[in-house]
Amino acid sequence: MTVPLALRPVAAQEFSLAATLASGQVFHWSPQGQGYAGVIDESPVYVEQQGDRLLTTGEPAVVARYFALDHPLAEIYASFPDDPAMRAALEYCRGMRIIRQPAWECLATFITSSMKQVAHIAQISRVLRERYGRRLGPGGPYAYPGPERLAVLREDDLRACALGYRAGNLLKTARMIAAGEVDLDAIRAMPDDLAREELCRLAGVGEKVANCVLLFACERVRAFPIDVWIERVLRENYFKGKRKVTAGRLRDFTREYFGEYGGYAQQYLFHHARSARHRKS
DNA sequence: TGCCAGGCCAAAT
DNA sequence: ATTTGGCATGGC
Q1: A1-70 is classed in which CATH architecture?
Q2: pTM score of the predicted model
């Protein structure tokens, strides 16, 4: 059995670990004991919340950075538009943060997310880790397999992980990254529009997935991914009864209306909408 | 059973 | 610039 590790405290004001991990931005954390077990880069981490602090087996500075405990939440909330949908989402998600994910892991999981429910994205992520990821210590969890590892597989290997038509996209993208054809580190330093354009060169990456990578892995808190849930929220709350509102019109509206922390607003609206749907049944 | 899920892509308008 | 059909798989 594992050796019991000392839990170290991390100050965490204005933070909800539960909301953050349940919000569909990261998929591999699982409930364990009083908290959650997961992996940050190549380190196994256990973390639980006790009021205004976290207790973790991880390196405190690494945990604080991963969960973005430095984001100015009061300033972010002050930037949210004042309307009923936004107020309800803020009330429900208070303390949720946009975390800083490793870029490749984020990119790959969102390539597999196309036309999939959150539960199944998590399932695919788990199979890929267990089948092709490096095991982090005896009996430990698995790291997400890097692009070099996936690049040498065949499409059928990935189809066997229930990826369906996404298998070819993940494989092509892994090969492009492994070959240095697209450089994720370079993208992190580019202006938003150029970074998005560069990400869209990858197989299975369109505007929505590119925005997820920009938001969840590149610290672009303006990036506003529009999926089927958010599109529904936008149409029902901001374009009620109007016809012929095109995708382009929606995109322009979000940039203007939600502003500097649009990505945060988007994630709050997304998590609230999904949670409301699941509570109904 | 049928419909929907954190879409993308190529082709046609 | 926008619309349309095809693509795999699993949950409800």
Answers
A1: 2-Layer Sandwich (3.30)
A2: 0.97
